[in-house]
Every structure is written in structure tokens, then in C-alpha cells.
């Protein structure tokens, strides 16, 4: 087979020369000693690799993911429709297939300019917090041309400032019930904004140099509109993708959940929120706080290193996360469910179990990618790869090939269980998330196989299950 890219050719030829020494399953402690003597070699290898990639044109994947152009068109039309249907069904007293589809509101009830204005203000406030010169500045993963972009870590600080602003606003009379009362309009305002942002990103990416393009981009205008053509679109130092990943949508999710909690108390005449609502709010708050506290871990994820910034991430980050991930809280406002304490204890145990797997797996990989010689990881076994990066083959990453996805799925289940078993709607999130992560795992697997070749095959033989041991 002819090599498609200069980079690929380099990997394959390097692989052949590596084959005899590649698989080292000794603990890292012994490995590090051996590595010291090889260090000079590795440095030369990585240098020549980055030299080659900087000379090569930007990597463009020809085999399109997500079902190619028809697939992404379907997703781009289907997601907003699905969002509206879900939110409308959730507002019904008795949502069921018998009264499907839910009655569509009049056009003037779908759009409210004031709501759009509030959304823009929210976005600008988050942008302002992002620009504050507080927090550590770190470097991202090396780009194809060897450069490393700088990122400021102040997401957690933005959450604290947002809490102060929301607290002050409520104190001075702002009514968060407005968010519940205009939930669909807010979702549509965010959708319109994300569409506008995607158009802007597509237009500016048309003039982007080849070295700025995302590995996932294809050259096809429709596909690239979806997946994103530019890898790291920036206005000066303002990184649009990095900002949208963790700020307006993720922090917005917490505010939406809080609004739902207050709406539940008002509509159900409660002096305190229900146990179910408290569980959902606390679990999801923990998830967001964790993401912002460990903000640096975002820099090694697929979203940042592989996918461009286009409709997929703009809609996902700005619309899907705040308006669909808050679905359980939204559901509980109109469909109360009493959870007993024994049941709550089981759900909390499930959540904590998922969280421990998720956090430890992500932290282990992140620490390893940041510093493979970290003494705290010395007990772990690895496989060498021809790229100079090793793969963990014991610890969490020796349990299954995506332990972080397993933890995430367990947490997703724990978020839905407080809604009881009266309806399938609150379980939409678990079903959707399973499909997303299974598909994402397959995408990542393809990238890793292409990147690491034989070493990846060896890893798959050592760790045969992808997400759930003995099942998948
Ligand atoms: P990962 O963080 O799992 O990153 C995958 C990358 O990790 C691979 O491309 C590879 O990159 C590296 N890797 C894979 N196996 C190994 C190994 N054995 N040893 C060392 N490195 C390895 O993927 P995601 O970016 O998809 O997910 C990050 C987190 O975000 C996950 O916890 C996921 O659950 C969560 N997530 C949440 C979503 C949500 O909507 N709530 C959506 C998507 C993800 P390389 O070798 O190049 O470093």
C-alpha cells in the first residue's frame, strides 16, 4: 500500500526498526534506568519527527467519520430537532408515545430577543472572566509544526466569580425562575449563537494556513463545517475552542441546574429541594467542579488535540451540554420523584465508584503524558511506540482501554436514577452518552492504530476489552 502521508511513512519505517525492542513490559522503575541511556536517541527521533511533520502538509484524513457528508448533514439537522422535541416532551405532564409529538408552540413563543440578549451577556461575562490575568499559564501538546500553544488555567476562578455574580443578582432581586420559564427560548438562543459562531469559524478557516488545520478536517466544505477546519482558532491569545469547551456551556449547566432547583421548590411548594433534585444537582456540580479544577487535563483530550472547532463542538459545548445535560433536573421540576435514603445511598455509592474510576484514570494518563518519567508512575508497565510516546499497559489503562469512559458512564447512570423508573425520558442521557462514548472510543481506536501501528496491536492483545471488562 502506498503511504498516504509523509508522516505515516515515517511512522511505518520507524516501526520496522523498532519491532525487536518495542514491547517492554517491565515496571517503569526498571524502564526509567534503561530510558536514561536511550534518552539521546529518543530526542533525536522526536526532533526528526517534528522536522518531518513541519515540512509535511497538514494531515488531512480522507476517510470521513460520522457517516461522511450525509451523516454530518443528518446530525446537524437532527440535533436541534431532537433538542426541541426533548424539551417539549419534558414539559408535558404525561409524556408518552400516545401524545407524541408534543404540540409545537407558536413561532413567537420560540424566539425572544430579550432571552437572546441575556445569553449574549452571559457569554461576554464568561469571556471577560477568561481574559482575567489570574491563574497559571501552561503549554499544550506539541502541534504538527512542533509549536506549543499557551493556555491560562482560570476556569475554577471563573466558576467562583460566576457564583458571586449569580448570588449577588439573586440577592438584588433577579429571579432565576426566568430561566425555567424560558428554557426552550434560551436553548434556541444558544443554538442560533452556536450556528453563527460555526459560520464565523468556517469563514475564517477558509484563509487558514495548512499548518493550522485540524487532523480531522477533510477539505470538504460541509464536512469541515461540522468537524471544524481550524484546530485552534484564536483571536489574539483568546482561544475560541478552549474557551467554549469549559466556560459558557459547562458553567451555564450549573446555573441551569440551580434554576431548576429553585423552580422545583416554587412549583411544588417545598421549603427545601427534594432529595432527588439535591442528588442530581450535587452530582453534576461535582462533575463541573472536577472538570474546572483539573482544567489542564483538557489539553490532552481528543477535542483539543485532534478535532477542529466547528458546528460539532460549538453546538455540543454551548447548547447540548447546558440544555440536555441538565435534563434530569428539568424533568424533576414537572415530575417529582421521592427517593428513599437506602436508594439514595446506593446511588451515591454508584456515583462515587464512577467518579473514582473516571478521575484516577484521567489523572494517571495525564500525569504520564506530562512526564513519562514521573517517579509516582514508576510501578506502571508500558509499551514503547515508534513515535517516542509510550502507552500505559498496567494500572487503570491495563484494566480496559478506556477506563475513563467506564467511569463516566457509571456517573451518567447515577445522575438518572434519582428520577425513578416512572419514565424513560431521564434515561435519554445515559442512552445518548453510551452511543457517544462507544462511537468516540472507535474513533480514538482508529487514530491510535494509525498513530502507533504495531504497538497499538500489542496493547489491544494485552488489554482486550475496550470499556467494560468481559462485555465490551
Ligand atoms: P481520552 O482522554 O481517553 O484520550 C484518548 C487519548 O489517550 C488517545 O488518543 C491517546 O492519545 C491516549 N491514550 C490512549 N490509550 C493510552 C494508554 N494506554 N496509555 C497512554 N495514553 C493513552 O479521550 P477523550 O478525549 O475522548 O476523553 C477525555 C475525558 O472526557 C474522558 O473522561 C471522557 O469520558 C470525557 N468526555 C466527556 C464527554 C461529555 O460530554 N461529558 C464527552 C467526551 C469525553 P496520545 O497517545 O496521543 O496521548
What this model shows, in words?
Belongs to the ERG4/ERG24 family. It comes from Lynx pardinus (Iberian lynx). The chain crosses the membrane at residues 71-90, 110-132, 153-174, 180-203, 309-327, 339-358, 412-438. The chain is built from 19 helices and 6 strands. With 472 residues, the protein is mainly α. The strands form 3 sheets. A two-stranded antiparallel sheet has the order 1-2. Strands 3-4 form a two-stranded antiparallel sheet. Strands 5-6 form a two-stranded antiparallel ribbon. NADPH dihydro-nicotinamide-adenine-dinucleotide phosphate binds at residues 300-303, 358, 362, 365, 368-369, 389, 391-392, 397, 402, 404-405, 408, 440, 444, 447-448.
